[in-house]
Amino acid sequence: MTKLPILTPDDKIAEIKRLYYSATRQTIHQDLATALQLLKSMASEEERERAAVYMDGLSQMRSDWSERSGGRKSKRKR
Predict the structure, then answer these.
(1) pTM
(2) Pick from 25, 32, 63, 67: most CB atoms within 10 A?
(3) What does the pLDDT look like over 4-57, one tens digit per residue?
(4) Residue 74's CB: how many other CB atoms inside 10 A?
(5) What is the 8-class DSSP label of residue 24?
(6) How many Å separate Cα 35 from the centre of its chain?
(7) Strand, coil or helix: what is 26?
(8) How far apart are CA 24 and CA 45, in angstroms?
(9) CB count, 10 Å around CB of 18?
């Protein structure tokens, strides 16, 4: 895991936004992990709320791309 430099709250949100817009099928897992680390480092609920839409989008991309690539877990047989 890469250590992140000390960032201001606005820098953290800008980095999450950058990760959101630059994510690809190949980078989504690492992008989401990095964004999650940034989110965890935010001090206030207000900061986290500002980043929420990008976090939701990254999570949705990961889900969509996992389903299409066959990475979906198989259903239990009854």
Answers:
(1) 0.77
(2) 32
(3) 567 899 999 999 999 999 999 999 999 999 999 999 999 999 999 999 999 999
(4) 5
(5) -
(6) 4
(7) coil
(8) 28
(9) 13
- Give the position of tokens 């201001």: 8
Nearest-CA neighbor of 65 among 43, 32, 36?
32
> 7: which 2 tokens?
């960032």
Terminal Cα-to-Cα distance of the chain (whole angstroms): 40
How far, rounded to the nearest angstrom, does the alpha carbon of residue 70 sit from its chain's CA centroid? 21
Tokens of 12: 């953290």
Name the amino acid, one letter, at 7.
L
- Give the Å distances, CA to CA, from 51 to 28, 48, 54, 63, 67: 17, 5, 6, 19, 25
